[in-house]
Protein: GntR family transcriptional regulator
Amino acid sequence: MESDQALPAGCAGDAMSGPTRSHSVAERIAQDIQAGALPPGAWLKQIDLERRYGCSRGDVRRALDELVAKRLVQHVPNRGHHVFELDPQRLAQLGQLRAILEAAAADLSYDKADAAALQRLEALAARFEAAVRDGTLLEQHAANIAFHMALLELCPNPELAAMIRETRNRVPSALLSQWPTRGWIEQSIRDHADMIAALRACDRDALRRVVVGHMREGRRPGAG
Structure:
């Protein structure tokens, strides 16, 4: 095991309590699942996770328990843990749930959409467009997530926002299929601009339409 100085941020032994460390590990595993770095069906060996995230076996075990409870990971007795693999019907159901939740959040997001918030969204939309033009798939994914998390911060209902984040995390984006064609990713750029324009115009119906349309037919439910 490497010294604390060599451990990734959030995993140093003295910096956090055990439950806080394990939650941090769970968050990082969830991010890798959502990004497609740990694909559906992949087996999660504890020793590999210890090395990957620079944490103790106890932290990894508690993190896996947390992810099982969130239905991101499945435990198979006498075999271990693997990333939950959703069937097409379940994926469609989660997509429908996300559309309902995000439409509800859109209806509540106007009071906090001040000039500073709109400026931040514009900067993040520009970052995504630049990543589409010159960046890698991972950079595009990270920029897209950053835009949507900033948009979600405008929702004044923290329980609704937390439910949306949890639902998003339950569906891996699978980077290579998130935007099947160049046309899909270019439409995402336009969608981001349309969301900002609707917020600026205080056009609730337009924002709801573009948010739900962003998860339109033909996309994975985790996209957007």
